[in-house]
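If your schedule permits, I should be very grateful for your opinion on a structural question. What I wish to show you is a protein chain and, alongside it, a tokenised description of its three-dimensional fold. Would you kindly read the sequence against the tokens and tell me how you understand this chain to fold? Here, with my thanks, is the record as I have it:

===
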Amino acid sequence: MKKLNNYINFGLLLNAIGIISSRFNLLPSFTQGVCVGLGLTLILVGIYAENHDLAKLKNYKRNILNKALGK
């Protein structure tokens, strides 16, 4: 089995937090939904990143961040 990338690892962590929170009512419903939704999104991006190059996406995010910070 190949090593999981960071997107999948953080996605699994957020899903675990969401599942534990739903079981023991640790977080409000909205925060729990955000954890689960973001976790699933990160898992899907990680699966996509296994077979495709994400360099264009990284450059796009970097350009947006530089424009927002005024660099």
Q: What stands out?
A: The chain has a mean pLDDT of 93.
